[in-house]
């Protein structure tokens, strides 16, 4: 909340909780964090108020409000969040509809900013104080006692109404947790959207027909912590299948980058895999249900599938977000209990120990050919195998992106040939380690990648290695794919304005000293050099050059022409063949070596192939002269070349055409073709 919009504004802002039910509660406590700035220690304009007669809508000033006394508040002159002293709301025990309001009023003299976070209202001095320091079974029993206390029963219609109108309603729409489809709520009394049904993420058949005979089954049936909106067809497909990663997909549910899967897991058991963006939500719902209604892990083994390691991994892969926190608070207001794994994600490890294996490192593609490559990675300790994903989607969200047979594929060693690919496509792969003795999993590795049709025997850098990090422009040494580089006025970028083929790329600042320089030689000579580049954000651009040295950086020889990214978001490719049979190092630097403003450039996918005796070098000393509409080009002969191809383009960074033709000599004269006034010569 703020009273400043270009200038000081006289304004009034309200932030009001949903209706809170304090019936049957005692020792009610409220906590929150706040950050206040530009108030110069004057806090009178930030009020915390309570009402028992507010209707939940309309002008809050028409209701009666009591100001609460709050201690330990922010000083009013920084962005730092401060935890206030917990407020005692015991005087409002028994009230069935309580609203907490945060009201900010700016004046003509003062217009500060007030931020509120982590609002928590609970019974007792601390909702989880009784389990402080506990682990294992003692923590299980303690949490079970806490979340069973004051847990109010819900009716079927009441639970559906809460899900569709409050808990999962976003601007008048609800989303199927499995398919991602949005639909408007239906009519009273249960507000079920057309084609939807309530999904019991912990299926009813697991506890009503399995012989479990859990206590308080009526509460379990309509426990809001495990109920979510779902399309009826998706709900039916999930049925009572255990949750796991799917290897053989029988049905993909969703579209675009939101897919859940039904099919067989790696052990050929029927299972269901939740969409990536909701994996953690569902995992925490099942973990909650287990400790609420069971006394051991038996509740997480269904149809011979031990779901605990998978739920554990999903919990860490998809962390708690603001939506879950808000939903947990809203369920608490309605139902009277909380999901502890949303409040304290670390409870998962406190209960079950560390079920996460070390993550495989350094995923690298090698032996890249027209339709195949070999994926490999470093083997962590204790892993007996791996699950490998290969996709044309770097985020692995699109079902159509997965290479057939390479979704959750079990690999016994730490390398695998991937075949039957399309020439010229870029493929990404990731792996997680598995351990058969207790089903433990690792988190996913970073992405490896390969572009088919490009031979990469040699040296490549994609900036995706786990230790390939540099957050500042200051000069420093970074190890990239096994060789040290100096990066001066350059960093490894990850923000939204960085163009990157994956999660990271190099960002050169554009200053006169901006450069990336290999500090070690690459063995096996140099065949070709290529990389992709694009402007950073919308920065203006300058010229750059790439050079190589065969005498340990004493002298440098320029490779090809200078280059600059266009003033568009088009990704460009630099390519040159040098073919020098000596150990070499390269550097990329600002061509003019002057200037001080930001002209930032992103570079990714650097590839330096080995010397190839069958590879022709690029023609040197190319001389191009244009007079009126006539162009004449001369070049030096290349040893071993039988002909030369001349190509033209309307831009030095654009697409070159082969329309001019192939010639046997070392000169060509022709007519300028419109604005296509840029040329290159290739030896063949």
User: Using DSSP, what is the number of strands?
Assistant: 44
| Cα-based radius of gyration, to the nearest Å | 31 Å
Helices, by number, come to 10
Strand coverage percent: 25-35%
Helix content: 10-25%
Low-confidence parts lasting 5 or more residues at pLDDT below 50?
A: none
Describe the sheet with the most strands: 6 strands, antiparallel
Mean pLDDT across all amino acids: 88
Structural class: mainly beta
What's the overall geometry?
Answer: globular
Distance between the termini: 67 Å
Structure commentary:
With 684 residues, the chain is mainly β. It is built from ten helices and 44 strands. β39 and β40 (630-634) form a beta hairpin. α6 (279-293) crosses α7 (308-317). The mean pLDDT is 88.
Features of this protein?
684 residues; six-stranded antiparallel sheet; 13% helix; 34% strand; mainly beta
Summary of the model, kept short:
The chain is mainly beta. Helices cover 13% and strands 34% of the residues. Strands 27, 30, 31, 33, 36 and 38 form a 6-stranded antiparallel β-sheet that branches. Strands 28-29-32-37-34-35 form a 6-stranded antiparallel β-sheet, with no helix packed on it. It has a 4-stranded antiparallel β-sheet with strand order 1-7-3-4, with no helix packed on it.
